[in-house]
Design goal:
Blueprint (H helix, E strand, L loop, with lengths): L4 E2 L13 E3 L5 E3 H15 L3 H21 L2 H4 L2 H24 L4 H16 L2 H7 L4 H4 L13 H16 L8 H20 L2 E2 L3 E2 L5 H21 L2 H9 L1 E2 L3
Antiparallel strand pairs: 1-6, 2-3, 4-5
Helix pairs in contact: 2-4, 2-10, 4-5, 4-9, 4-10, 5-9, 8-9, 9-10
């Protein structure tokens, strides 16, 4: 993974904020070309060797965690199995968002931990649906709880983005809808191996093949990162904080 660099540390003569950027031969290039070149480089960094290695590690973790959940010592204890399963959801969400943003400063760590928390608390709707704190009741529901409807993912994320626009929230929060997308999507895809995806109002799909679950989980951070560039979210973050973000 590549690190951050601060545009504020650049010399005035080479600052792209002045409308011109440096070239290798010492000539100046227009700001628009410099910005486009920076975007192209950032997109290439989305698929850097370090980023791809982190994604491969994420896929390997999914396989190892699922095998651990099948061990007799775990499988025979309901509370232990549920706790480890939920922790896996959280770690997958945490790891996925870390691939998206990288870990460069303290605030990034907070974001990653929040992504993991969001991926875990989705399962609280089991208890809401059961109307009880009984774990046995929560895992024996006649139908799937509301937050496990995959159709909600775009609705919730777009609604959050709209509310942020209406409320004129600070640019520092601009990545929150994408974080929520990663947290929900990784949770749903993982659950889809057993139950399929619940696409309201059309019903459930067939169970997601295991290889597709692992490959989707490993590639989802890259897809999210590219979409953030295409929608301008990366530009907002870079402009706000004076840094270029390489993943």
């Amino acid at each position: 993974m590549q690190g951050f660099y601060s545009k504020l540390n650049s010399s005035p003569s080479s600052s792209p904020l002045l409308g011109m950027g440096p070239r290798a031969d010492g000539a100046r290039v227009p700001l628009s070309l410099a910005v486009e070149a920076e975007k192209a480089q950032a997109l290439l960094q989305t698929f850097s060797s370090a980023s791809l290695l982190a994604s491969a590690g994420l896929g390997a973790f999914c396989v190892l965690a699922d095998h651990a959940l099948q061990l007799p010592a775990v499988h025979q204890h309901l509370w232990l199995r549920a706790a480890l399963d939920n922790a896996t959801h959280g770690l997958v969400g945490l790891w996925s968002w870390a691939v998206v943003i990288g870990l460069r400063k303290k605030s990034d760590l907070y974001e990653v931990l929040l992504a993991g928390l969001l991926a875990s608390i989705i399962d609280l709707d089991h208890f809401y649906m059961a109307g009880s704190l009984s774990l046995k009741a929560a895992v024996s529901l006649p139908q799937r709880p509301p937050l496990h409807c995959s159709s909600l993912i775009p609705v919730v994320c777009l609604s959050l983005r709209f509310l942020m626009w209406i409320g004129r929230l600070k640019d520092a929060w601009c990545s929150l809808p994408w974080m929520l997308f990663i947290s929900m999507a990784t949770h749903h895809v993982r659950d889809g191996v057993r139950h399929g995806l619940w696409l309201c109002p059309f019903g459930n799909t067939a169970p997601v093949p295991y290889w597709l679950y692992v490959s989707t989980t490993a590639t989802l951070p890259h897809l999210c990162s590219v979409l953030m560039y295409l929608t301008g979210t990366r530009d907002v973050i870079s402009t706000k904080h004076g840094v270029a973000i390489d993943v």
